[in-house]
């Protein structure tokens, strides 16, 4: 079962949790779809309404930046660790 | 009675309150620290005042939060309150304007240029489709600050009439509740285009409605200050006695016809106050004549800009006027601009201010 690590800035949108266990595996897009069902406010911080990852949000699947490994189609094996991190940006 | 001044900044929303008829102000700490607040509204139509804030994270995108207890707590729905439908092929980048219209209706102007409408007091919004589908839209451009509907003015006596302004694109109106929209820019110059008098494409920075005559509006343009007395059919220059015709905000008195305030800047290429003097200009005759108001404002050379929504009036008597600068200073006048005092200093860049009695 994949685990999603939630950054501190978004934990209020995940019911205060630092780790979320999700049932979906397969692709990152499928995992985020499940997050959208269960924690919709968290999901919309990560993706915009077109379904695209927000520009300054990085998502790593087992330590690999998803933008270099297929984007939302990145494979997510059962037991994978998905880390959501704000990128180095902002003023 | 308490006067509330909501100050939206680049890094949070600050609420200032005065319980002594605006003689002194208490400024609280930041709500939404680190978030940009480009739009804020104080909705006093209902039994309790509601605050609405456009809250934007540089990482996690824009949203709208509301508070019915003057900022003690904030609520935001699970689903995005503002989102383009899938077939629009666009994404809300920034909320530039939140305008309560009464009876639970709230309008939001966003970037890219679009208008959203709420019927539940500003919790959730739907795209105003006819403006988004307007055949002119592909030709609307973007100013330096982005492409956005930044002004929304519902008609006070006729809910089917709304005027919006966008940069660039200009002024558009509906008279049928948003089902159709027409440009209303006749007389407003677009000096930056080959045809300086186009039907649309102007870079209108802000429009204000007259406090007593709902057919009279005032517009601060990207060079040019204008008035219409026929609801936007035609515009005439009122920049004649201003020291410069560039600037961002224009604000109208809440009740008295013809009284308006502006903060002129030298030019597009020199965005600083004329003679580096911090001065608000006021007209009491609908822009025919303007007078500088500077008592109590800084006397040192002043380089700051007042952004388009960073000036407002309250609804008290006499009217209060407020403005904030990109250097995080906020000034208030409780006598319609005759004299000024500092409300706050050293805040982040001030993006918007709104005031009301709560």
Describe the protein's architecture and organization.
The complex is a heterodimer of chains A (91) and B (358). Chain A has 91 residues and is an alpha+beta fold. In chain A, 20% of the residues lie in helices and 25% in strands. Chain A has helices spanning 28-38, 40-46, and strands at 3-5, 19-21, 26-27, 57-61, 64-65, 75-76, 81-86. In chain A, the strands form two sheets. A five-stranded mixed sheet of chain A has the order 2-1-7-4-5, with no helix packed on it. Chain A has a two-stranded antiparallel ribbon with strand order 3-6. In chain A, helix 1 (28-38) packs across helix 2. Chain B has one helix and 29 strands. Chain B has one helix at residues 129-132; strands spanning 3-9, 12-18, 26-27, 36-43, 50-57, 61-67, 94-102, 105-111, 114-118, 126-127, 148-154, 162-167, 170-174, 182-183, 204-209, 217-221, 225-228, 236-237, 250-252, 260-262, 265-267, 270-273, 280-283, 291-293, 311-313, 321-324, 330-333, 341-344, 350-357. In chain B, a hairpin with a 2-residue loop joins strand 7 and strand 8 (105-111). A four-stranded antiparallel sheet of chain B has the order 3-2-1-29, with no helix packed on it. A four-stranded antiparallel sheet of chain B has the order 7-8-9-10. Chain B has a single domain (3-357), classed as YVTN repeat-like/Quinoprotein amine dehydrogenase (Methylamine Dehydrogenase, Chain H). Chain B is mainly beta and 358 residues long.
SSE diagram, text form:
The complex is a heterodimer of chains A (91) and B (358).
Chain A: E1 3-5, E2 19-21, E3 26-27, H1 28-38, H2 40-46, E4 57-61, E5 64-65, E6 75-76, E7 81-86
Parallel strand pairs in A: 1-7
Antiparallel strand pairs in A: 1-2, 3-6, 4-5, 4-7
Helix pairs in contact in A: 1-2
Chain B: E1 3-9, E2 12-18, E3 26-27, E4 36-43, E5 50-57, E6 61-67, E7 94-102, E8 105-111, E9 114-118, E10 126-127, H1 129-132, E11 148-154, E12 162-167, E13 170-174, E14 182-183, E15 204-209, E16 217-221, E17 225-228, E18 236-237, E19 250-252, E20 260-262, E21 265-267, E22 270-273, E23 280-283, E24 291-293, E25 311-313, E26 321-324, E27 330-333, E28 341-344, E29 350-357
Antiparallel strand pairs in B: 1-2, 1-29, 2-3, 4-5, 5-6, 7-8, 8-9, 9-10, 11-12, 12-13, 13-14, 15-16, 16-17, 17-18, 19-20, 20-23, 21-22, 23-24, 25-26, 26-27, 27-28
GO molecular function (chain B): hydrolase activity
Keywords (chain B): Hydrolase
InterPro entries (chain B): WD40/YVTN_repeat-like_dom_sf (IPR015943), Xyloglucanase_GH74 (IPR052025)
């Amino acid at each position: 079962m994949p685990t999603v690590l939630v950054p501190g800035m978004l934990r209020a949108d995940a019911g205060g949790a630092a780790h979320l266990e999700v049932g979906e595996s397969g692709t990152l897009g499928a995992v985020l779809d499940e997050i959208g069902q269960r924690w919709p406010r968290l999901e919309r911080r990560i993706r915009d309404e077109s379904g695209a990852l927000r520009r300054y949000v990085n998502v790593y699947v087992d330590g690999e930046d998803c933008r270099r490994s297929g984007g939302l189609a990145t494979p997510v094996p059962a037991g994978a660790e998905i880390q959501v991190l704000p990128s180095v940006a902002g003023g | 009675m308490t006067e509330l001044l909501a100050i939206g900044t680049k890094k949070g929303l600050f609420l200032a309150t005065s319980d002594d008829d605006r003689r002194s102000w208490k400024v609280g700490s930041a709500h939404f620290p680190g978030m940009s607040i480009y739009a804020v509204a104080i909705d006093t139509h209902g039994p309790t005042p509601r605050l609405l804030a456009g809250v934007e994270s540089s990482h996690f995108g824009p949203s709208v939060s509301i508070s019915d207890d003057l900022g003690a707590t904030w609520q935001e729905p699970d689903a995005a309150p503002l989102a383009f439908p899938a077939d629009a092929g666009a994404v809300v980048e920034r909320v530039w304007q939140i305008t309560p219209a009464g009876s639970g209706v709230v309008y939001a102007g966003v970037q890219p240029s679009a208008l959203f409408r709420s019927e539940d007091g500003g919790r959730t919004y739907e795209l105003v489709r006819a403006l988004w589908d307007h055949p002119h839209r592909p030709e609307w451009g973007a100013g330096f600050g982005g492409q956005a509907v930044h002004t929304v003015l519902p008609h006070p006596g006729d809910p089917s009439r709304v005027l919006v302004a966008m940069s660039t694109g200009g002024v558009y109106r509906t008279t049928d509740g948003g089902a159709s929209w027409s440009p209303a820019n006749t007389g407003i110059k677009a000096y930056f285009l080959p045809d300086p008098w186009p039907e649309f494409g102007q870079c209108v920075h802000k429009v204000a409605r007259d406090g007593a005559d709902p057919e009279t509006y005032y517009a601060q343009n990207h060079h040019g200050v204008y008035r219409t007395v026929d609801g936007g059919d035609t515009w005439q220059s009122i920049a004649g006695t201003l020291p410069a015709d560039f600037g961002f905000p224009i604000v109208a008195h809440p009740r008295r016809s013809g009284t308006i305030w502006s903060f002129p800047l030298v030019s597009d290429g020199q965005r600083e106050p004329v003679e580096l003097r911090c001065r608000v200009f006021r007209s009491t005759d609908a822009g025919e004549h303007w007078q500088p108001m500077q008592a109590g404002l800084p006397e040192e050379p002043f380089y700051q800009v007042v952004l388009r929504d960073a000036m407002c009036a309250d609804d008290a008597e006499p009217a209060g006027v407020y403005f904030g600068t990109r250097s995080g200073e906020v000034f208030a006048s409780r006598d319609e601009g005759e004299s000024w005092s500092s409300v706050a200093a050293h805040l982040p860049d001030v993006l918007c201010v709104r005031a009301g009695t709560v």
